[in-house]
Design brief:
The chain has 325 residues and is α/β, with parallel strands linked by helices. The chain is built from nine helices and 13 strands. Strands 4, 6, 7, 8, 9, 10, 11, 12 and 13 form a nine-stranded mixed β-sheet that branches. Strands 1-2 form a two-stranded antiparallel sheet. The longest helix has 30 residues.
């Protein structure tokens, strides 16, 4: 009998590219992942991984197992959802009378962690104490790969304008809301009294931005399509709160989303961009095979509610400027 837990470990290696990365994604040690795969090799009597330089790659048999196991794992997820539904319906007061149990593993980008999950997770713990919701921070591309491969159950992702974000057919995407990013300037900046800005207004500015591999950075480049030699990135940080402090120190300007953004220091102002507007669609993604899972639906409903409340709060405070004291 094939060890399905070990198959999940092998799929994690295929998705993440190495045993160490797979272990990080699964929350295990590299040794534990290696042992699972060795046990799988002993059970199947075929080699599933082979050395390639300092790393490993899947053999033809390994790739075949990863591809073929997708249907089996999806069927098991649907069966688990059906069992939970049947168990709930069998309660003395009908469906929904029993507390939701199980585990829903969530992947989300950093501002969604601050802007959505910090409200969702305590509420879920209070309402469903038997439900576990471990969370991992990851960029949208990585989150989609983790959900698609079964290493996460629910993902929160964003897409800026026309920046591509491929969605596999076996995933369901649920739009949550549209987030807006503003240009953050010092209050003494010559453009600080404007109500809106265009890329050409900012062509000569020095910028603080996220790393080049991120979707946010790709959008910043798209924002300046057709504007020569812009944007000039002088400082890089993955934390938007660092962006705010670097702007306040007079070291450049930054494009910072409203979701998860703290109230601005009195020395800062936030101004939206036009033509094009800097907006990003925020969505939740999960596998079709888990569509009927009560646990996943409880978490998804809580995320939707928190996202709606967060979008309303952001809309009521467009400039997000703290009062001058």
């Amino acid at each position: 009998m094939i060890d399905l837990e070990a198959v999940v470990a092998l799929r994690a290696v295929a998705t993440n590219g190495s045993v160490a990365a797979a272990a990080d994604a699964l929350g295990f040690t590299p040794s534990a992942v290696s042992q699972q795969i060795k046990r799988l090799e002993r059970g199947t009597r075929v080699a599933l991984l082979e050395r390639a330089g300092r790393g490993v790659v899947l053999t033809d048999a390994g790739r075949h197992l990863v591809t073929s196991s997708a249907t089996v794992l999806a069927d098991l997820e649907r069966l688990e959802a059906d069992l939970h539904l049947a168990g709930g319906a069998a309660g003395p007061e009908g469906a929904g009378s029993r507390p939701v149990t199980g585990e829903v593993r969530v992947g989300a980008f950093s501002t969604a962690v601050r802007g959505i999950l910090v409200d969702v997770l305590p509420r879920l713990r209070a309402e469903h104490p038997e439900l576990r919701v471990p969370t991992r921070e990851s960029e949208p591309w990585e989150t989609i790969a983790l959900v698609a491969s079964g290493q996460r159950d629910l993902g929160i992702v964003h897409r800026w304008g026309a920046v591509a974000l491929a969605m596999p057919d076996h995933l369901i995407e649920t739009p949550l809301f549209t987030d807006v990013a503003d240009v953050i300037l010092r209050r003494d900046h010559p453009l600080a009294d404007r109500t809106e800005l265009e890329p050409v207004d900012l062509a000569d500015e020095e910028w603080i931005a996220t790393f080049d591999s991120t979707i946010c950075r790709q959008w910043l480049r798209r924002l300046f399509d057709g504007v020569s030699n812009a944007p000039r990135i002088v400082h890089e940080s993955m934390e938007f709160e660092n962006h705010l402090e670097l702007v306040r120190a007079g070291l450049g300007v930054a494009l910072v989303p409203r979701m998860g953004r703290p109230v601005l220091h009195p020395e800062l102002v936030a101004i939206p961009t036009v033509r094009p507007a800097s907006t990003r669609g925020v969505s939740a993604v999960h596998r079709r095979s888990q569509a009927d899972s009560p646990a996943l639906q409880v978490v998804l409903d809580a995320v939707r509610q928190a996202a709606t409340q967060g979008a309303v709060a952001a809309g009521e405070s467009t400039r997000r400027v703290a009062p001058v004291s």
